[in-house]
Design a protein that fits this description.
This protein has about 425 residues and is α/β, with parallel strands linked by helices. It has 19 helices and 15 strands. Strands 1, 2, 3, 6, 14 and 15 form a 6-stranded mixed β-sheet that branches. A hairpin with a 6-residue loop joins β12 and β13. Mean pLDDT is about 90; it is low at about 1-45.
């Protein structure tokens, strides 16, 4: 999974300069299947003609609730008098963006925020424009290789990564100390009140589940997730040790299970020791716990007599442009504006999303941020690149997401675990 390349993420070369600042007009270099639309791409500085356009934007609610999107839209309009823009902004989460776009590509947003694992399906559907020119230069020259790769398919750039998308560990310092959180064994062995849980298990549809199997050295479709002939090895001896470990953990009365009780129900009363989540919920937890909230990389676990470092999936959250947009030039310019250094800093200041732009990430404020340090450490040492291919996406989330659900219900138990994992592997690799 080329973990070492992830060191580029936040500690990249600080000498890079931003080629496309917020005041520069950017254009795209559409791929052969893209429809460039009908937008006049070069009114600025020319005849002075103003074109009335509407830009539909889909972004997560935190970009609307914090006022970031409105502020950015006003700033963009001020810098682009060649367009008189009517904004149509709707809250659509990055996790559900793909399904909303693919439902009707032509009616979807001109500019949308999405999670990088959705990119192959968006490309295959002709729903996202390939980026080139100054926009591609901004991404390629101001972000680390690993994060840039999350926005590519077959070496072609289709999106602008704006923050890192991985999870790490939160913990309550009143219940656990820095030594205990280093391993799942330490977390579960800690003495906590009878009404408290030591750990919170959440599969997140398989997104967090993968940490256990990848951490033990297993994989889906080979080391980089693209070799379908390599198959899936989660049913071998190591995979069975991990599965049996999860059966014990999920059924441990000191382990809370997602869907049965929420993290928010527990932390206010100091009833939860440790859980995994991302930067997007940092403020929510910190507002409740304050200085009692701790952050750390995800820990080790020992399913087979050996300590293994759990490995999170690493991806990014991106900004894409609809290939069917009727105002493609303006849409690309706005997407590039949203992803530039200045606006990554603004997004960090207002919603705690760690910048992918290396200059923004090198600011004193970001470097002094404990969460930024944890994300950098997690991305570099405790993660694997999330596979980005259509076969993985079409199968993994459905089949892997069912594993913990069936463990919790008892449908998977130690008596039938081998049979169940054999069926999982067969479903993942069926022709």
């Amino acid at each position: 999974m080329k973990r070492k390349t992830l060191a580029m993420l936040l500690a990249g070369a600080l000498s890079l300069s931003l080629l496309a600042g917020c005041g520069n007009k950017t254009t795209d270099n559409p791929g052969s299947n893209d429809n460039p639309g009908t937008t006049n791409t070069d009114n600025a500085g020319g005849s002075g003609e103003v074109t009335d356009i509407t830009l539909k934007v889909w972004c997560p609610s935190n970009q609307i609730d914090t006022g970031i999107m409105e502020e950015q839209q006003k700033a963009f309009q001020a810098e682009h008098p060649e367009w008189n823009i009517t904004w149509d902004t709707t809250a659509v989460g990055e996790d559900t963006c793909q399904e909303n776009v693919l439902r009707d590509v032509e009616a979807a947003a001109d500019v949308y925020f999405f999670a990088s694992d959705q990119l192959p399906d968006l490309v295959n559907a002709g729903a996202i424009a390939q980026l080139g020119g100054a926009t591609a230069e901004m991404v390629e020259n101001n972000m680390g290789e690993a994060v840039v790769n999350t926005a590519k398919v077959d070496g072609k750039l289709y999106a602008i990564p704006f923050t890192h998308n991985t999870f790490f560990m939160f913990y309550d310092k009143t219940l656990l100390n820095e030594d205990q959180i280093k391993s799942i064994e330490g977390i579960m062995a800690a003495e906590t009140p009878d009404n408290a849980y030591n750990f919170y298990f959440e599969s997140a549809g398989g997104w967090k589940l993968g940490a256990w199997y990848y951490g033990a050295g297993l994989s889906v479709f080979g080391s980089d997730g693209s070799d379908l002939s390599a198959g899936v090895d989660w049913n071998n001896a190591t995979g069975m040790a991990v599965t049996n470990y999860l059966i014990d953990l999920i059924n441990n009365p000191k382990c809370a299970y997602d869907g049965e009780i929420a993290v928010s129900e527990l932390i206010g009363d100091h009833r939860l020791g440790a859980w995994w989540d991302g930067s997007w919920n940092y403020d929510t937890y910190h507002d409740v716990l304050g200085d009692d909230m701790g952050l750390a990389v995800i820990p080790t676990f020992n399913p087979d007599g050996t300590d293994h470092q759990l490995l999170s999936f690493y991806g990014s959250k991106c900004i894409g442009v609809n290939a069917k947009s009727k105002n493609r030039a303006a849409a690309v310019a706005f997407a590039a504006f949203l992803g530039n250094e200045e606006n990554q800093v603004l997004r960090y200041e207002k919603s705690a999303q760690i910048p992918t732009n290396v200059n923004a990430a090198a600011s004193e404020a970001v470097k002094a941020d404990v969460m930024a340090t944890v994300i950098s450490d997690e991305s570099t040492n405790c993660s694997v690149m999330q596979p980005v291919n259509t076969t993985f996406s079409a199968r993994y989330w459905t089949y892997a997401g069912a594993i913990p659900t069936e463990i919790r219900s008892g449908a998977i138990n130690k008596d039938n675990a081998q049979e169940k994992m054999d069926a999982f592997v067969a479903a993942m690799t069926a022709e």
